[in-house]
Fold this sequence. Notes:
Structural class of chain A: mainly alpha
Helix content of chain A: 25-40%
Number of strands of chain B: 0
Radius of gyration of chain B: 18 Å
Low-confidence stretches of chain B: none
Order of helices and strands of chain B: HHHHHHHHHH
Number of strands of chain A: 2
Order of helices and strands of chain A: EEHH
Structural class of chain B: mainly alpha
Distance between the termini of chain A: 34 Å
Largest interface: A-B, 18 and 23 residues
Strand content of chain B: under 5%
Mean pLDDT of chain A: 92
Distance between the termini of chain B: 49 Å
Oligomer: heterodimer
Radius of gyration of chain A: 13 Å
Largest sheet of chain A: 2 strands, antiparallel
Strand order of the largest sheet of chain A: 1-2
Mean pLDDT of chain B: 87
Number of helices of chain A: 2
Largest sheet of chain B: none
Amino acid sequence: MTDDQCISCGMPMREPKDHATHDVQKRYCHHCARADGSMKSYDETLLGMTAFLQSTQGLDATVAGNMAREMMRKMPAWREQP
Amino acid sequence: MQAAHLFAVQGFRDTVTADVAKAAGVSHGTVFAHFSSREALVAAAAHQMCRMLTDAMHRVVGDGRSLAEVLQAHLDAITENQLMYLRLLREHASLPVGLRTQWIGIQSAVATYIIEAAAREKQLKPMPQHMLFNTWIGLVHHYLLNEHLFAPSGGVLACHGPALIDFFSNLIRRSP
Lengths: 82, 176
């Protein structure tokens, strides 16, 4: 098991299959990868993370969006995002 | 981590960095050599517990274990970190937004493992994923927060865990 974390969403990447396209050189996870293997944009990731919080815990949409934004604010991929 | 233990026992608000330095046997300045702020120290302590929780569940789910085994792993991981888990459970709403977010994030991560294990079970009642998780975590948190009622000598999840797992498993299954 490795100690990598996705630079986009923070998900632990413990095994190759957790990485985008199963490539351990990629610093983002398979959830944050598009079909072509490239990393999703900020807006795509924000939508996905918001939906994730809603589907797993049933959070209010606005609350989920704010939480997702706060989570992403600390991610290496999005620290420069306004 | 001494800091994590102090935060768990004394609370996030009531633990100052001087307490952490004293417990660790280092100078106050040494604490800040490693952590830029008190908030960073608190976040690191909470992160450590959260990571232990998800690592434990990742191992069990990765092995294709049953829902009951995954739920047991969840309870075991909480028990192993009970002081810190309870502290976060009680105080997360009043903590800085970063910690509140971390708490919510870890619950979603745990939910994912439980939902994945449940999806492998047969004859489940159709229900929204979040209701499945919220029902389980609601039960667990109720027992944790009221340990003095259900297990006054301690070890509430060890004592009632099997019954909770059994009840929940039957609750979400269709009647034969």
